[in-house]
Design brief:
5-stranded antiparallel beta sheet; alpha+beta; 13 strands; 2 domains; Chondroitinase Ac, Chain A, domain 3; 486 residues; Rhopdopsin 7-helix transmembrane proteins
Length: 486
């Protein structure tokens, strides 16, 4: 009745009503064509503040509009967090009162600007807890069009692009229930993988002129893996400090998203380069250099992941920054990473089949050098193994939330990608083993030379010392002889 009276009033400037009883509190504002109001309007009830551009709404509604802000002391017990379904958290609770906002009898209810709702928390919240701004839609709480723009332990500001019944639900941090033994094992696995990946990268850098040891794609793949795993280890070991800093958490998730996509793109680029070289096996004198210029390789290897991450961030600004500073799984946003990965792996499988058939045909026709075909076939199986160890562990990521064993298996396999690269491209490579032997022989010979030099110097020092001692004794004897004669 109060809302109806305000709406049907003949006030052409502005009129405000505020009513409070034991259970409900209402704040109503009406503006007419002759209002003196300028800027955004603030409506307030206990624990709630609404900021809305009522003048912008009135301009599309014959110059007048009304807004209602209603809060209840008990609605949150009925429309509670059990109606909020999310996959990436284990526990939720109602963080503030339920709020209803409406534009009674307005012909146009489109907002000219998003509204800002400031909720006061029921209790001081844990800094690690994550607020979710939700609205009531078809019997459940939904998050579309609403996001938390600011939050601290006592207040949360929600920005929404539409009007409805709103609430603020706190999501507890699942990492507080994580197993410290699993975390320690994960950090140890990643550290071991980083050591072997560093050794592989040093080997590739020192043998960069040998095409049978490394190429541009393999070198960039190792660099991206090293940066991604190092950043992942840093993020997970300092997760409790990073989580309250939402902007930093989103930035780290975006960078990890980019680096891991770069790994898969460079892995695919290596398969493409192998395919291009296999096509020339039928020529007896095939050129060693295949593929586009290195500038175009860099543009493809880093440009494609950058475009994917940028489009994902624009389409879902809240998609980066989950409870573990990774991709949010709600609404399938994690497929912005898994989708390109599946596409790349599928393309690699097709390329491997074509390469295998080409090698088989070349062997039957004997149109190429046997050594070149043998080397290409060995390289094919090495890159296939590399593709498997880089791609298949991510399958466990989708099921790791349900099983601790799969989570440990995923962390172990992904952390040892650098170990596998060092094994198949360094230890199992004849050229690298020969180079390792040469380096070791040079090291041993230098040690022997330095050792022999030190022995000679020591001998010369001792000889000089003995000479000086003998000369001193002789002088002593000569000086003592006259005394003895006397």
């Amino acid at each position: 009745m109060l809302v109806q009276n305000v709406e049907t009033s003949t006030v052409t400037t502005q009129h405000r009503e505020h009513i409070t009883n034991n259970n409900t509190e209402v704040d109503i504002m009406h503006v007419g064509p002759n209002t003196s109001l300028t800027g955004s309007l603030q409506l307030k009830t206990t624990d709630i503040v609404l900021e809305i551009d009522l003048l912008g709404i009135a301009q599309n509604n014959n110059g007048s509009a009304s807004v209602v802000l209603l809060t209840s002391n008990h609605l949150h017990t009925v429309f509670n967090n059990s109606h909020f379904h999310t996959a990436n958290v284990k526990r939720t609770y109602m963080g503030a009162k339920v709020v209803l906002i409406g534009l009674p009898q307005a012909m146009v209810k489109t907002l000219s600007k998003p509204i800002n709702l400031t909720f006061q928390h029921f209790n001081v919240s844990d800094p690690a807890d994550k607020p979710a701004c939700v609205y009531w839609s078809e019997g459940a709480w939904a998050t579309d069009g609403c996001s938390a723009s600011e939050s601290n332990s006592t207040h949360t500001v929600c920005s929404c692009t539409h009007l409805s019944t709103f609430a603020m639900i706190m999501q507890t941090n699942p990492t507080t229930e994580s197993d410290p033994v699993v975390e320690a094992l994960g950090a140890f696995f990643v550290l071991v993988g980083l050591v072997f990946l560093t050794l592989a990268l040093l080997t590739f850098a020192l043998c960069r002129r040998n095409s049978r040891v490394t190429n541009m794609a393999r070198l960039n793949l190792s660099v991206c893996l090293l940066l991604a795993h190092a950043l992942f280890l840093l993020t997970q070991t300092t997760l409790r400090l990073i989580q309250p800093l939402m902007a930093l958490c989103k930035l780290l998730a975006g960078v990890l998203h980019f680096l891991f996509l770069c790994c898969f793109v460079w892995m695919s680029a290596e398969a493409v380069l192998l395919f291009l070289s296999v096509r020339k096996l039928r020529q007896i004198k095939a050129k060693d250099r295949t593929g586009p210029h290195w500038r175009y390789k860099l543009l493809i290897g880093y440009g494609i992941p950058l475009v994917i991450v940028a489009i994902s961030a624009i389409a879902r600004p809240d998609g980066h920054g989950s409870d573990k500073c990774w991709l949010v799984t709600e609404n399938g946003f994690n497929w912005s990473f898994l989708g390109p990965v599946c596409l790349i792996l599928s393309g690699n499988i097709i390329l491997f089949i074509i390469i295998f058939l080409t090698i088989h045909t070349t062997l039957k026709s004997a149109r190429s050098e046997a050594s070149k075909v043998k080397y290409t076939r060995l390289l094919l199986f090495k890159i296939m193994a590399q593709c498997v160890i880089l791609g298949c562990p991510w399958i466990f990521l989708m099921a790791s939330k349900e099983s601790r064993v799969l989570e440990v298996l995923f962390v172990f396999l992904t952390s040892q990608q650098g170990t596998v690269i060092f094994l198949i491209h360094c230890l199992l490579n004849d050229e690298v083993r020969k180079q390792y032997a040469t380096w070791w022989q040079n090291y041993v010979s230098s040690k022997l030379q330095s050792g022999s030099t030190s022995v000679v110097l020591t001998a010369m020092t001792q000889q000089s010392s003995n000479s000086q001692t003998g000369h001193t004794s002789l002088n002593t004897y000569t000086e003592a002889e006259p005394d003895k004669g006397d």
